[in-house]
Amino acid sequence: MAAFLALGCTDATKGQELPKPVKVHQEQGYKLPVYDYEHFKPFLKVTDTDVVRVINFWATWCKPCLAELPAFEALQANYKDKQVEVILVSLDFPDQVKERLIPFILKKQLKSKVLLLDDPHGDVWIPQVSEEWSGAIPATIILTSEEYRFYERSFEYPALEHELLSLKSNFND
Amino acid sequence: MKSLKILVVLTLLLVVSAFAFTQIDTFESGYAVGDVATDFKLKNVDGNVVSLSDFDKAKGFIVVFTCNTCPFAMANEDRILDLDKEFKAKGYPVIAINPNNPEVQPGDSFEAMQERAREKGFTFPYLFDENQEIYPQYGATKTPHVYLLQKEGESLLVRYIGAIDDSVRDEATVTKRFVADAVQALLAGKPVEPSNTKAIGCSIKA
Protein backbone atom coordinates (compact mmCIF):
# COMPACT_ATOMS: atom_id res chain seq x y z
CA MET A 1 0.00 0.00 0.00
CA ALA A 2 2.84 2.38 0.83
CA ALA A 3 4.46 1.57 -2.48
CA PHE A 4 1.19 2.22 -4.21
CA LEU A 5 0.78 5.66 -2.68
CA ALA A 6 4.40 6.65 -3.18
CA LEU A 7 4.19 5.72 -6.82
CA GLY A 8 1.06 7.75 -7.37
CA CYS A 9 2.79 10.88 -6.10
CA THR A 10 6.50 10.72 -6.77
CA ASP A 11 6.23 9.60 -10.36
CA ALA A 12 4.45 12.73 -11.37
CA THR A 13 6.57 14.24 -14.09
CA LYS A 14 6.99 17.96 -14.48
CA GLY A 15 4.17 18.57 -12.08
CA GLN A 16 1.77 16.41 -14.08
CA GLU A 17 0.16 13.77 -11.91
CA LEU A 18 0.27 10.42 -13.66
CA PRO A 19 -2.75 8.14 -13.58
CA LYS A 20 -2.93 5.74 -10.64
CA PRO A 21 -2.26 2.08 -11.37
CA VAL A 22 -4.58 -0.71 -10.27
CA LYS A 23 -1.65 -2.44 -8.60
CA VAL A 24 2.14 -2.48 -8.38
CA HIS A 25 4.38 -5.50 -8.87
CA GLN A 26 7.50 -5.42 -6.71
CA GLU A 27 10.49 -7.55 -7.63
CA GLN A 28 14.17 -7.10 -6.77
CA GLY A 29 13.42 -3.61 -5.54
CA TYR A 30 11.78 -2.62 -8.84
CA LYS A 31 8.22 -1.35 -8.86
CA LEU A 32 6.16 -2.01 -11.96
CA PRO A 33 2.76 -0.29 -12.10
CA VAL A 34 -0.09 -2.28 -13.64
CA TYR A 35 -3.06 -0.71 -15.42
CA ASP A 36 -6.25 -1.91 -16.98
CA TYR A 37 -7.39 0.16 -19.94
CA GLU A 38 -9.77 2.35 -17.93
CA HIS A 39 -6.95 3.41 -15.61
CA PHE A 40 -4.46 3.67 -18.47
CA LYS A 41 -6.67 5.90 -20.62
CA PRO A 42 -5.60 9.23 -19.04
CA PHE A 43 -2.08 8.66 -20.46
CA LEU A 44 -3.59 9.22 -23.91
CA LYS A 45 -4.36 12.83 -23.08
CA VAL A 46 -1.80 15.56 -22.54
CA THR A 47 -2.99 18.81 -21.00
CA ASP A 48 0.33 20.58 -20.45
CA THR A 49 1.10 22.45 -23.68
CA ASP A 50 4.86 22.00 -23.21
CA VAL A 51 4.78 18.22 -22.89
CA VAL A 52 5.25 15.64 -25.64
CA ARG A 53 4.41 12.08 -24.64
CA VAL A 54 5.78 9.12 -26.57
CA ILE A 55 3.97 5.87 -25.83
CA ASN A 56 5.39 2.63 -27.19
CA PHE A 57 3.46 -0.66 -27.02
CA TRP A 58 5.86 -3.59 -26.72
CA ALA A 59 6.53 -6.93 -25.04
CA THR A 60 9.66 -8.89 -24.14
CA TRP A 61 8.52 -11.68 -26.49
CA CYS A 62 8.20 -9.30 -29.46
CA LYS A 63 11.44 -9.31 -31.43
CA PRO A 64 10.91 -6.14 -33.49
CA CYS A 65 9.87 -4.38 -30.27
CA LEU A 66 13.15 -5.25 -28.59
CA ALA A 67 15.03 -4.15 -31.68
CA GLU A 68 13.56 -0.65 -31.44
CA LEU A 69 13.75 -0.23 -27.64
CA PRO A 70 17.20 1.42 -27.82
CA ALA A 71 15.74 4.14 -30.05
CA PHE A 72 13.09 4.95 -27.43
CA GLU A 73 15.69 4.83 -24.66
CA ALA A 74 17.90 7.22 -26.62
CA LEU A 75 14.98 9.56 -27.21
CA GLN A 76 14.25 9.50 -23.48
CA ALA A 77 17.90 10.26 -22.66
CA ASN A 78 18.20 13.07 -25.21
CA TYR A 79 14.89 14.80 -24.53
CA LYS A 80 14.02 14.06 -20.90
CA ASP A 81 14.97 17.59 -19.92
CA LYS A 82 12.81 19.00 -22.68
CA GLN A 83 9.42 17.87 -21.44
CA VAL A 84 9.39 14.67 -23.47
CA GLU A 85 8.00 11.67 -21.60
CA VAL A 86 8.72 8.23 -23.00
CA ILE A 87 6.41 5.53 -21.67
CA LEU A 88 6.98 1.89 -22.53
CA VAL A 89 3.66 0.04 -22.27
CA SER A 90 4.36 -3.65 -21.89
CA LEU A 91 1.81 -6.17 -23.11
CA ASP A 92 3.66 -9.06 -21.54
CA PHE A 93 1.71 -11.94 -20.04
CA PRO A 94 0.85 -11.03 -16.41
CA ASP A 95 2.18 -14.38 -15.20
CA GLN A 96 5.59 -13.60 -16.72
CA VAL A 97 6.10 -10.27 -14.98
CA LYS A 98 8.28 -11.61 -12.17
CA GLU A 99 10.34 -14.14 -14.11
CA ARG A 100 10.66 -12.28 -17.35
CA LEU A 101 9.57 -8.65 -17.62
CA ILE A 102 11.10 -7.16 -14.47
CA PRO A 103 14.40 -9.09 -14.86
CA PHE A 104 14.54 -7.80 -18.45
CA ILE A 105 13.95 -4.18 -17.35
CA LEU A 106 16.69 -4.51 -14.72
CA LYS A 107 19.15 -6.25 -17.04
CA LYS A 108 18.70 -3.65 -19.79
CA GLN A 109 18.65 -0.88 -17.17
CA LEU A 110 15.73 0.78 -18.91
CA LYS A 111 15.47 4.42 -17.97
CA SER A 112 12.10 5.14 -19.54
CA LYS A 113 8.98 4.64 -17.50
CA VAL A 114 7.63 1.12 -17.96
CA LEU A 115 4.13 0.00 -17.13
CA LEU A 116 2.15 -3.16 -17.71
CA LEU A 117 -1.17 -2.87 -19.52
CA ASP A 118 -3.11 -5.89 -18.35
CA ASP A 119 -6.47 -5.85 -20.07
CA PRO A 120 -7.56 -8.98 -21.92
CA HIS A 121 -10.36 -7.41 -23.95
CA GLY A 122 -8.37 -5.88 -26.79
CA ASP A 123 -11.39 -5.65 -29.05
CA VAL A 124 -12.76 -3.00 -26.71
CA TRP A 125 -9.63 -0.92 -26.11
CA ILE A 126 -7.49 -1.31 -29.27
CA PRO A 127 -9.86 0.84 -31.39
CA GLN A 128 -9.92 3.41 -28.58
CA VAL A 129 -6.14 3.78 -28.82
CA SER A 130 -6.50 4.14 -32.58
CA GLU A 131 -9.02 3.07 -35.21
CA GLU A 132 -6.01 2.50 -37.47
CA TRP A 133 -4.45 -0.09 -35.17
CA SER A 134 -4.77 -3.73 -36.27
CA GLY A 135 -3.43 -4.84 -32.89
CA ALA A 136 0.04 -5.78 -34.12
CA ILE A 137 2.98 -4.64 -32.03
CA PRO A 138 5.20 -2.70 -32.02
CA ALA A 139 2.97 0.34 -32.15
CA THR A 140 3.63 3.90 -31.02
CA ILE A 141 1.72 7.09 -30.21
CA ILE A 142 3.27 10.54 -30.09
CA LEU A 143 0.98 13.10 -28.56
CA THR A 144 0.84 16.65 -27.41
CA SER A 145 -2.04 18.76 -26.15
CA GLU A 146 -2.76 19.51 -29.81
CA GLU A 147 -1.94 16.38 -31.77
CA TYR A 148 -2.26 12.62 -31.54
CA ARG A 149 -0.26 10.54 -33.99
CA PHE A 150 -0.45 6.77 -34.17
CA TYR A 151 2.10 4.51 -35.87
CA GLU A 152 1.80 0.76 -36.48
CA ARG A 153 5.43 0.30 -37.47
CA SER A 154 8.97 -0.12 -36.20
CA PHE A 155 11.25 2.85 -35.60
CA GLU A 156 14.93 3.48 -35.80
CA TYR A 157 16.24 6.50 -33.90
CA PRO A 158 16.46 9.02 -36.78
CA ALA A 159 12.88 8.37 -37.90
CA LEU A 160 11.61 8.51 -34.33
CA GLU A 161 13.39 11.78 -33.61
CA HIS A 162 12.16 13.15 -36.92
CA GLU A 163 8.55 12.44 -35.91
CA LEU A 164 9.11 14.10 -32.54
CA LEU A 165 10.64 17.18 -34.11
CA SER A 166 7.89 17.42 -36.71
CA LEU A 167 5.44 17.72 -33.82
CA LYS A 168 7.48 20.10 -31.74
CA SER A 169 10.44 21.81 -33.32
CA ASN A 170 10.90 24.58 -30.76
CA PHE A 171 12.76 22.59 -28.09
CA ASN A 172 15.32 25.36 -27.72
CA ASP A 173 12.85 28.17 -27.25
CA MET B 1 24.92 13.63 -74.02
CA LYS B 2 23.52 15.82 -71.30
CA SER B 3 19.96 15.24 -72.47
CA LEU B 4 20.62 11.51 -72.44
CA LYS B 5 21.74 11.74 -68.82
CA ILE B 6 18.61 13.67 -67.93
CA LEU B 7 16.53 11.07 -69.71
CA VAL B 8 18.23 8.26 -67.79
CA VAL B 9 17.68 10.05 -64.49
CA LEU B 10 14.04 10.76 -65.33
CA THR B 11 13.44 7.15 -66.32
CA LEU B 12 15.06 5.96 -63.11
CA LEU B 13 12.91 8.35 -61.11
CA LEU B 14 9.80 7.04 -62.81
CA VAL B 15 10.74 3.44 -62.17
CA VAL B 16 11.56 4.17 -58.54
CA SER B 17 8.36 6.09 -57.91
CA ALA B 18 6.27 3.42 -59.64
CA PHE B 19 7.94 0.88 -57.39
CA ALA B 20 7.25 3.02 -54.34
CA PHE B 21 3.56 3.26 -55.20
CA THR B 22 3.32 -0.48 -55.82
CA GLN B 23 4.81 -1.03 -52.40
CA ILE B 24 2.27 1.27 -50.78
CA ASP B 25 -0.52 -0.46 -52.68
CA THR B 26 0.61 -3.83 -51.45
CA PHE B 27 0.88 -2.55 -47.93
CA GLU B 28 -2.55 -1.02 -47.84
CA SER B 29 -4.37 -3.66 -49.83
CA GLY B 30 -6.19 -6.41 -48.07
CA TYR B 31 -9.70 -7.61 -47.73
CA ALA B 32 -12.68 -6.00 -46.14
CA VAL B 33 -15.74 -7.97 -45.14
CA GLY B 34 -17.75 -8.71 -48.31
CA ASP B 35 -14.71 -8.95 -50.59
CA VAL B 36 -13.93 -11.99 -52.71
CA ALA B 37 -10.94 -13.89 -51.33
CA THR B 38 -8.30 -15.48 -53.45
CA ASP B 39 -7.54 -19.18 -53.48
CA PHE B 40 -3.92 -20.28 -53.14
CA LYS B 41 -1.59 -23.21 -53.55
CA LEU B 42 0.58 -23.57 -50.48
CA LYS B 43 2.74 -26.35 -49.10
CA ASN B 44 1.28 -28.22 -46.15
CA VAL B 45 3.33 -29.70 -43.31
CA ASP B 46 2.60 -33.19 -44.76
CA GLY B 47 4.42 -32.21 -47.96
CA ASN B 48 1.27 -31.90 -50.10
CA VAL B 49 0.18 -28.70 -51.79
CA VAL B 50 -3.20 -27.48 -50.54
CA SER B 51 -5.78 -25.27 -52.26
CA LEU B 52 -9.17 -24.20 -50.99
CA SER B 53 -10.62 -25.65 -54.21
CA ASP B 54 -9.56 -29.11 -52.96
CA PHE B 55 -12.37 -29.02 -50.41
CA ASP B 56 -15.46 -29.87 -52.49
CA LYS B 57 -17.81 -30.30 -49.58
CA ALA B 58 -16.75 -27.30 -47.53
CA LYS B 59 -19.24 -24.45 -47.14
CA GLY B 60 -16.39 -22.14 -46.24
CA PHE B 61 -13.14 -21.89 -44.35
CA ILE B 62 -11.72 -20.59 -41.11
CA VAL B 63 -8.41 -19.23 -42.43
CA VAL B 64 -6.05 -18.47 -39.55
CA PHE B 65 -2.71 -16.75 -40.04
CA THR B 66 -0.63 -18.11 -37.19
CA CYS B 67 2.90 -19.26 -36.44
CA ASN B 68 5.10 -21.29 -34.10
CA THR B 69 6.80 -18.46 -32.30
CA CYS B 70 4.33 -15.73 -31.34
CA PRO B 71 3.19 -16.26 -27.73
CA PHE B 72 -0.25 -14.92 -28.61
CA ALA B 73 -0.51 -17.39 -31.49
CA MET B 74 0.63 -20.21 -29.23
CA ALA B 75 -1.90 -19.19 -26.60
CA ASN B 76 -4.56 -19.80 -29.25
CA GLU B 77 -3.46 -23.18 -30.63
CA ASP B 78 -5.89 -25.16 -28.50
CA ARG B 79 -8.70 -22.79 -29.43
CA ILE B 80 -7.85 -23.22 -33.12
CA LEU B 81 -7.95 -27.00 -32.63
CA ASP B 82 -11.33 -26.64 -30.93
CA LEU B 83 -12.69 -24.58 -33.84
CA ASP B 84 -11.61 -27.27 -36.31
CA LYS B 85 -13.14 -29.98 -34.15
CA GLU B 86 -16.37 -28.07 -33.82
CA PHE B 87 -16.84 -26.85 -37.37
CA LYS B 88 -15.02 -29.15 -39.83
CA ALA B 89 -17.92 -31.60 -39.84
CA LYS B 90 -20.33 -28.69 -40.31
CA GLY B 91 -18.49 -27.55 -43.45
CA TYR B 92 -16.09 -24.95 -42.05
CA PRO B 93 -12.63 -26.49 -41.63
CA VAL B 94 -9.66 -24.56 -40.26
CA ILE B 95 -6.87 -23.71 -42.69
CA ALA B 96 -3.80 -22.41 -40.83
CA ILE B 97 -1.14 -20.41 -42.66
CA ASN B 98 2.26 -19.37 -41.36
CA PRO B 99 3.09 -16.02 -43.00
CA ASN B 100 6.47 -15.39 -41.33
CA ASN B 101 9.83 -15.27 -43.06
CA PRO B 102 12.05 -17.88 -41.38
CA GLU B 103 15.11 -15.82 -42.25
CA VAL B 104 13.80 -13.21 -39.83
CA GLN B 105 12.14 -15.67 -37.45
CA PRO B 106 14.06 -19.00 -37.61
CA GLY B 107 11.52 -20.67 -35.33
CA ASP B 108 8.97 -20.39 -38.13
CA SER B 109 10.80 -22.53 -40.68
CA PHE B 110 8.91 -25.23 -42.55
CA GLU B 111 10.68 -27.91 -40.49
CA ALA B 112 9.71 -26.13 -37.26
CA MET B 113 6.11 -25.97 -38.53
CA GLN B 114 6.13 -29.73 -39.12
CA GLU B 115 7.43 -30.26 -35.61
CA ARG B 116 4.85 -27.94 -34.05
CA ALA B 117 2.00 -29.58 -35.98
CA ARG B 118 3.15 -32.98 -34.76
CA GLU B 119 3.60 -31.89 -31.15
CA LYS B 120 0.18 -30.24 -30.95
CA GLY B 121 -1.57 -32.85 -33.11
CA PHE B 122 -2.96 -30.34 -35.60
CA THR B 123 -6.07 -31.77 -37.26
CA PHE B 124 -6.02 -29.11 -39.99
CA PRO B 125 -3.64 -28.14 -42.80
CA TYR B 126 -0.79 -25.94 -41.60
CA LEU B 127 0.45 -24.18 -44.72
CA PHE B 128 3.59 -22.21 -45.39
CA ASP B 129 3.22 -18.85 -47.19
CA GLU B 130 6.74 -19.39 -48.44
CA ASN B 131 6.83 -16.49 -50.90
CA GLN B 132 4.90 -14.23 -48.51
CA GLU B 133 2.38 -13.50 -51.23
CA ILE B 134 -0.86 -14.62 -49.66
CA TYR B 135 -0.90 -12.74 -46.36
CA PRO B 136 -0.53 -9.30 -48.03
CA GLN B 137 -3.42 -10.14 -50.39
CA TYR B 138 -5.59 -10.96 -47.42
CA GLY B 139 -4.26 -7.96 -45.50
CA ALA B 140 -3.13 -9.95 -42.49
CA THR B 141 -0.83 -7.90 -40.26
CA LYS B 142 -0.27 -10.18 -37.31
CA THR B 143 -0.55 -13.61 -35.80
CA PRO B 144 -3.11 -14.81 -34.94
CA HIS B 145 -5.38 -13.16 -37.53
CA VAL B 146 -8.57 -14.86 -38.74
CA TYR B 147 -10.42 -14.58 -42.08
CA LEU B 148 -13.71 -16.45 -42.20
CA LEU B 149 -14.69 -17.27 -45.78
CA GLN B 150 -18.01 -18.50 -47.14
CA LYS B 151 -18.49 -20.22 -50.50
CA GLU B 152 -20.99 -18.56 -52.78
CA GLY B 153 -21.09 -20.30 -56.13
CA GLU B 154 -17.53 -20.29 -57.35
CA SER B 155 -16.48 -17.41 -55.11
CA LEU B 156 -15.20 -17.24 -51.58
CA LEU B 157 -16.59 -14.25 -49.72
CA VAL B 158 -14.96 -12.75 -46.65
CA ARG B 159 -17.52 -12.77 -43.82
CA TYR B 160 -15.42 -11.97 -40.78
CA ILE B 161 -11.96 -10.56 -40.06
CA GLY B 162 -10.24 -10.41 -36.73
CA ALA B 163 -9.71 -12.22 -33.46
CA ILE B 164 -10.68 -15.75 -32.42
CA ASP B 165 -12.42 -14.40 -29.33
CA ASP B 166 -12.39 -11.43 -26.99
CA SER B 167 -9.43 -12.52 -24.86
CA VAL B 168 -6.51 -13.51 -27.05
CA ARG B 169 -4.07 -13.99 -24.20
CA ASP B 170 -6.09 -16.02 -21.78
CA GLU B 171 -8.87 -18.44 -22.64
CA ALA B 172 -10.15 -18.29 -19.06
CA THR B 173 -11.37 -14.70 -19.49
CA VAL B 174 -13.15 -15.21 -22.83
CA THR B 175 -16.69 -13.88 -22.83
CA LYS B 176 -17.35 -13.82 -26.59
CA ARG B 177 -16.24 -16.47 -29.08
CA PHE B 178 -16.19 -14.22 -32.15
CA VAL B 179 -15.23 -16.82 -34.78
CA ALA B 180 -17.44 -19.59 -33.41
CA ASP B 181 -20.38 -17.17 -33.23
CA ALA B 182 -19.66 -15.99 -36.78
CA VAL B 183 -19.65 -19.55 -38.17
CA GLN B 184 -22.86 -20.33 -36.26
CA ALA B 185 -24.44 -17.25 -37.81
CA LEU B 186 -23.42 -18.33 -41.32
CA LEU B 187 -24.75 -21.84 -40.70
CA ALA B 188 -28.03 -20.33 -39.56
CA GLY B 189 -28.15 -18.00 -42.59
CA LYS B 190 -27.84 -14.93 -40.39
CA PRO B 191 -25.59 -11.89 -40.75
CA VAL B 192 -22.29 -12.00 -38.88
CA GLU B 193 -22.14 -9.47 -36.04
CA PRO B 194 -19.54 -8.25 -35.20
CA SER B 195 -17.78 -8.87 -38.50
CA ASN B 196 -14.58 -7.03 -37.56
CA THR B 197 -12.74 -7.36 -34.27
CA LYS B 198 -9.28 -6.59 -32.96
CA ALA B 199 -6.73 -8.23 -30.69
CA ILE B 200 -3.08 -7.78 -29.87
CA GLY B 201 -0.80 -9.95 -31.96
CA CYS B 202 2.75 -10.29 -33.24
CA SER B 203 3.51 -8.34 -36.37
CA ILE B 204 4.16 -10.59 -39.37
CA LYS B 205 7.90 -10.97 -39.98
CA ALA B 206 8.57 -9.94 -43.58
From TrEMBL, chain B:
Q: Which domain of life is it from?
A: Bacteria
Q: Note the SUPFAM superfamilies from the entry.
A: Thioredoxin-like
Q: Which residues form the Thioredoxin domain?
A: 31-184
Q: Which Pfam families match?
A: AhpC-TSA (PF00578)
Put simply, this protein is called Thioredoxin family protein
| Stored PROSITE patterns | THIOREDOXIN_2 (PS51352)
Q: Which organism is it from?
A: Leeuwenhoekiella parthenopeia
Q: Does the keyword Transcription regulation apply?
A: no
Q: Which residues form a coiled coil?
A: none
Q: State the UniProt keywords alphabetically.
A: Signal
Where is the signal peptide, in residue numbers? 1-20
